[in-house]
Amino acid sequence: MTSSTPFLRFEGIVAGYGGGDVLKGVDFAVQEHGVTCIVGPNGSGKSTLLKTVSGLLHPRLGQILFKGTPLVGKTPREILKLGIVQVPQQHSLFREMSVEENVVLGAFLVRDRAEVSRRLASVREMFPIVATRAKDKAGSLSGGQQRLVEFARCLMLEPELVVLDEPSMGLDPKTLRTMFDTVKMMNEMGRTVLLVEQNARQALKLSHHGVVLENGQVRLTGTGREVLDNPEIGTLYLGGTFHATPPATNATPMKETD
Ligand SMILES: Nc1ncnc2c1ncn2[C@@H]1O[C@H](COP(=O)(O)OP(=O)(O)OP(=O)(O)O)[C@@H](O)[C@H]1O
Ligand SMILES: [Mg+2]
Questions:
Q1: Which single residue of 35, 224, 244, 250 has CA 20 to 30 Å from 66?
Q2: 246 is a domain residue
Q3: pLDDT of 53
Q4: Which ligand 1 atom is the nearest neighbour of the CA of 89?
Q5: Domain region containing 105
Q6: Total count of domains within the chain
Q7: Pick from 93, 189, 85: which is nearest to 150 by CA?
Q8: What is the DSSP-derived secondary structure letter of residue 126?
Q9: Rg, C-alpha atoms of the chain
Q10: Across the strands, what pairs with 164?
Q11: pLDDT(138) > 60
Q12: Which 8-state DSSP code applies to residue 255?
């Protein structure tokens, strides 16, 4: 990758589910080694955008380049092999399987058993719960614990890009902090992170870059701090749009916890 090749770039992404376009031309770049946070109101297309990265949804128009390689048209498996792993918005562990079995499944593309063991030892160190609750059914863990196990599972592929869709969803304030600390730790260990968050303040504080998505389009980009300090963002939190005077709509307010 040359210095001018962005790590991940969205170019004119138009995508939807057959009933009209949800994403209406999305352009922005994700910097390598950073944390990039996408915020925006409910239904603005954040999860839809992440699905286009992992190949779960094929855009109608546009391209996504990962280190110069086009992702559009590739299967989810091919995209995983390139080093992009997504943790979805809904909990995704197999509840009847043990914590360790779930984590090992994350390395399903790795044939070498010794290598799988090495990676398991490494994620155990990072996430003690993977060791302490190894034999327990994943379904017996709290929501926050399940999130950490999902992170551990995604790291088994040693991804270059970790994509997280609302990792804070359903977590209490204390678990929330642990989760955000873990995101920071994953980044400090060399993973580039692209995340969507409704706990916008906390997420933008730890993010190097922020992107505001509204109604399927990018309305603002900047450093995490710039997005956080932008007065228009306040309007967005209150459920309005980027108009000087708030329109009389029933836009859904974003939840804010700090
Ligand atoms: N599988 C689907 N089939 C049809 N429409 C969908 C599907 N998933 C999402 N949508 C619609 O696409 C739009 C954007 O949804 P999306 O889930 O991307 O929003 P979001 O920004 O992630 O919202 P939230 O903050 O609630 O997670 C919404 O109008 C939603 O109803
Ligand atoms: Mg979503």
A1: 224
A2: no
A3: 98
A4: 27
A5: 8-237
A6: 1
A7: 93
A8: H
A9: 18
A10: 87, 195
A11: yes
A12: P
Asked if residues 185 and 128 have their Cβ atoms less than 8 Å apart, the reply is: no
**Residue 258 within any structural domain of the chain:** no
Structure tokens at 85: 């792993």
The pair of structure tokens assigned to 201 is 């303040």
State the Cα–Cα distance between residues 82 and 97, nearest whole angstrom: 27
CA atoms within 13 A on the CB side of 24: 11
- Report pLDDT digits (tens) over 28-68: 999 999 999 999 999 999 999 999 999 999 999 999 999 99
Give domain status of residue 242, yes or no: no
pLDDT at position 89: 87
Residue 18 CA to ligand 2 centre (angstroms): 18
CATH number at residue 175: 3.40.50.300
Q: Is the pLDDT of residue 242 over 50?
A: no
pLDDT of residue 1: 56
Cα–ligand 2 centroid distance for 231 (angstroms): 24
| Overall average pLDDT of the 128-145 stretch | 96
Pocket-forming residues, ligand 1, beta carbon under 6 Å: 17, 22, 40, 42-48, 198
Query: What's this model's pTM, rounded to 2 decimal places?
Result: 0.89
Looking at 20-127, list the stretches that DSSP marks H as alpha helix, in order from N- to C-terminal side.
46-53, 76-81, 99-105, 113-126
Q: How many A from CA of 120 to the centre of ligand 2?
A: 30
| Residue that has been written with the tokens 């968050």 in this structure | 197
Asked whether residue 194 is assigned to any structural domain, the reply reads yes
